[in-house]
Amino acid sequence: MALVMENIAVRDEGKDILAGINLRIEEGTLHGLLSTASRERTTLLRVLAGLVKPCGGRLLQKGVNISGLSPRKRNIAVVYQEFINYPNLTVFENIASPLRRRGCAKGVINQKVEELAKLFGLHDFLKRLPTELSGGQQQRCAFARALAKDADLLLLDDPLVNLDYKLREQLREELKDILKKGSSTVVYATADPREALSLGGDTIVLQDGQILQHDKARNVFEKPLNIKTAQMMSEPPMNLLRGRVQESQLVLGQASSFPVPTHLKGVGLGEYFLGIRPGNIEIVNKKDDHCLEALLVDQEFDGLETFSFFKQEDGLELQVQKRGIENLIPGEVYYLKPNWGETYVFELGGPLLKSPCGVS
């Protein structure tokens, strides 16, 4: 049976943390909860866990209002950002602890702990205390203990954020497969859109205490319902260009005017926001009818990609993302060629009008 939030509201010191949340989570499904505000995504998880009682609305499970039900009476497991384990227990006993509380037989406990230790690469560390483990190993131990509980609902509160980059990428890939094999309903909270997308399943986009969109992860990425969702689902953020279509010309700001690209024909005359992801803009040597001229302000290289920041005379700013190293000279003017076929068109009020995958 589904877990349903009906008009859930949470306020603190006169401020809305969650404002009228309506959400349906089907049993056995995987959801990425994406929000740039850690407080609101953690609060939503805590409502699901029974650690925060909403000031309005209902939380229903199997049609029963469980808003005030104690966490102890809910079959849930939680993994936090911090590496939370029992410090005085070995890795074996940490993983075994929920099984012992259920009164499982010794043979069942041993078998389950062995399975989870092997799954999370902890088999050689079962006799160690958490303080004798690396950060990544401690978080693996916390994951193994959570899965040992075989909970109906597994809540993950940005569990990889405190790990270094390489370990985070490795564990993220492993987790995706592990979570899909389980039977628990999973809600994974994160501020990283790449993480939400890589999990697969559904993505819930939360901002300012409200759900902006809830759909399959790929649908949210390809067809964001509005500008806010589009910005949150892009890393780096989507470039937004305010422009207008007049007759056969597309005018961007005060510095650029060219024939309306094929993909944008049919949107009608008027003003719009055009959204294009930084990876869909190319830096070219020769200018054509659909290029922009812009001054290079700065560049950053993260070891895998180069991020170039440009600005036009009228203040229009663009970011370009390219795999590998792109050696350019700050202060020089370059030609930028957007892939107009990958452009999103938004109404000035925010709703999506047209995406590369079709009309919203």
Please characterize this protein's 3D structure.
- The chain has two domains: 222 residues, P-loop containing nucleotide triphosphate hydrolases (Rossmann fold); 116 residues, OB fold (Dihydrolipoamide Acetyltransferase, E2P) (Beta Barrel), CATH 2.40.50.140.
- It starts with a strand and ends in a 6-residue tail after the last strand.
- The radius of gyration is 24 Å and the shape is globular.
- A six-stranded mixed beta sheet has the order 6-7-8-3-9-10, with helices on both faces.
- Helix 2 crosses helix 3, helix 2 runs parallel beside helix 4 and helix 3 packs across helix 4.
- It has 360 residues and is an alpha+beta fold.
Brief characterization of the structure:
Helix content is 24%, strand content 35%. It contains eight helices and 21 strands.
Q: How large a portion of the residues is in β-strands, by DSSP E?
A: 25-35%
Oligomer: single chain
**H-E order:** EEEHEEEHHHEHEHEEHHEEEEEEEEEEE
Biggest sheet features: 6 strands, mixed
- What is the number of helices? 8
CATH superfamily of the largest domain: P-loop containing nucleotide triphosphate hydrolases
CATH class of the largest domain, named Alpha Beta
**CATH architecture call of the largest domain:** 3-Layer(aba) Sandwich
Q: What is the count of β-strands?
A: 21
Distance between the termini: 30 Å
User: Number of folding domains?
Assistant: 2
Strand order of the largest sheet: 6-7-8-3-9-10
SS-based structural class?
alpha+beta
Radius of gyration (CA) equals: 24 Å
Principal-axes shape call: globular
Mean pLDDT: 90
**What low-confidence regions span 5 or more consecutive residues with pLDDT below 50?**
none
